[in-house]
Write a structure and sequence with these properties.
By secondary structure, this protein is mostly helical. The protein has helices spanning about 5-35, 50-60, 90, 95-115, 115-145, 150-185, 195-230, and strands at about 65-70, 75-80, 85. Strands 1-3-2 form a 3-stranded mixed sheet. Helix 4 crosses helix 6 (about 150-185), helix 5 (about 115-145) packs antiparallel against helix 6 (about 150-185) and helix 6 runs antiparallel to helix 7 (about 195-230). The longest helix is centred in the last third of the chain and has 38 residues, at about 150-185. The radius of gyration is 21 Å and the shape is elongated. It binds zinc ion. Zinc ion binds next to helix 4 and helix 6.
Length: about 230
């Protein structure tokens, strides 16, 4: 049997659209929050790079470098290189947004240092998820042209479950990095009380994009499961 009927395509959009809309909404919110607080200078006058450096040094992580990378919101911590990368805006920015994002990335370095369980689990899932993503894409595109055989559908469910699990684990890791970031920013006096709300708004908006990605994946997974169940009837 081959499942590429118009009905299942209609069903696909039904499962896909809410996640898609949620994703767009989360991106718009992040864009607005980031733009707004990129205009608000921090009292300390620190750049994102300096704030991240301070948090890392105080935690005894002098060996973790803070480097500049091109791109917009391309900030990340690379656990394999044990290095922190900040976009130019956040590296040089002396704003609530820049310091907030930089501190969040430093928060990931603190998770790594503390051997935070979910952080390690997420790191272990990276190669598995990369393999699952490749297999998923391959079978998906093959299916579009040749139709989905029942076995392909189960492979899609299996690989997509791995991708969804990865996103599920990412969520608490992201929230925890922001929590650690805020804790250090205030403890070290890098951000003052009246700047607290701004930092939270930027970091919460960023976290929301991960929530949207997870919801979208769960809906898509449910779609594949529905399809597999229907194919048994
Ligand atoms: Zn993060």
């Amino acid at each position: 049997m081959i499942y590429n009927s118009l009905a299942s395509i209609g069903l696909y959009w039904l499962f896909l659209i809410p996640g898609l809309l949620l994703g767009i909404w989360a991106q718009i919110r992040l864009h607005h929050a980031y733009a707004k607080y990129s205009e608000v200078p921090v009292d300390s006058g620190m750049t994102g790079a300096q704030a991240a450096r301070e948090i890392l040094d105080r935690a005894g992580l002098q060996e973790v470098p803070v480097e500049e990378v091109p791109g917009h919101l391309s900030d990340h911590y690379d656990p394999t290189k044990r290095a922190l990368f900040l976009s130019s805006d956040d590296f040089h920015g002396q704003t609530v947004a820049a310091v907030g994002v930089a501190a969040h990335e430093a928060g990931h370095a603190l998770q790594h240092q503390a051997a935070y369980g979910l952080f390690n689990f997420r790191m272990a899932l990276v190669p598995v998820t990369q393999f699952a993503s490749m297999a998923y894409m391959g079978i998906f595109f093959l299916g579009i042209f040749m139709g989905f055989l029942p076995i392909a559908l189960w492979i899609i469910i299996g690989t997509f479950s791995v991708i969804t699990l990865f996103q599920l684990v990412t969520l608490p890791v992201e929230y925890d990095a922001s929590r650690r970031a805020k804790e250090q920013l205030f403890r070290l006096g890098l951000v003052h009380e009246h700047e607290r709300a701004g930092v939270s708004k930027v970091l919460d908006a960023a976290a929301l994009t991960y929530v949207a990605a997870l919801v979208s994946s769960i809906l898509q997974l449910l779609y594949y499961i529905t399809l597999a169940r229907d194919s048994r009837r």
